[in-house]
Amino acid sequence: MTIKQIKETCLYVSDLQQTAHFYHNLLGLPIIGQVEDRHIFFRAGTSVLLCFIADKTKVDKNLPPHDGYGHLHLAFEVSPEEYAAWKEKIQALNIAIEKEQEWKNQLHSFYFRDPDGHLLEIVPQGIWE
C-alpha cells in the first residue's frame, strides 16, 4: 500500500471574503465549495485548499473540528516555464515577495504571505526531484 498524494491542505483564516478575494480573484484558484461564515474550498491543480474559520468548526456535530492556529506554510507548484510569470504577477498585485531562494539545479522558489499571514511559496516542478 502507498499514499499517492496529499489531497487536501487546510488553512485557518479570519475572513472568508478576504480569503476568497486573495485566492480566487488574485491567484485564480477556482472556488469548489463554500459555507457562509464557516469555510471556503479552492481547487489547486489536483489538490484542494480548505480554508476554515476555526471556531466555527468546533460546533459541527457531523465532523471532527477542523481547527488550528498560527501561521502555516504551503507551496504551489507551477511549470518551470511559468515561474517567472508567476513572480511578475505577484509583484504586479503589490504582494510583497519576502524571499527568493535558489535551490539545487539552479531552480528558484519565492515566498509571500496571504492576508492571514500564512507563508506561501511558488515552486517549479522538479524542485523535489
Task: Explain what the structure shows.
With 129 residues, this protein is of the alpha/beta class. The protein folds into two domains: 1-54, Roll (2,3-Dihydroxybiphenyl 1,2-Dioxygenase, domain 1), CATH 3.10.180.10; 70-129, 2,3-Dihydroxybiphenyl 1,2-Dioxygenase, domain 1 (Roll), CATH 3.10.180. Helix content is 19%, strand content 36%. It contains three helices and eight strands, in the order βαβββαβαβββ. The protein has helices spanning 16-26, 54-57, 83-92, and strands spanning 8-12, 31-35, 39-44, 47-52, 73-78, 97-102, 108-113, 119-124. Strands 1-4-3-2 form a four-stranded mixed sheet. It has a four-stranded mixed sheet with strand order 5-8-7-6, covered by helices on one side. A hairpin with a 2-residue loop joins β3 and β4 (47-52). The longest helix is centred in the N-terminal third of the chain and has 11 residues, at 16-26. It is globular and about 50 Å long. The model has no long low-confidence stretch (mean pLDDT 93).
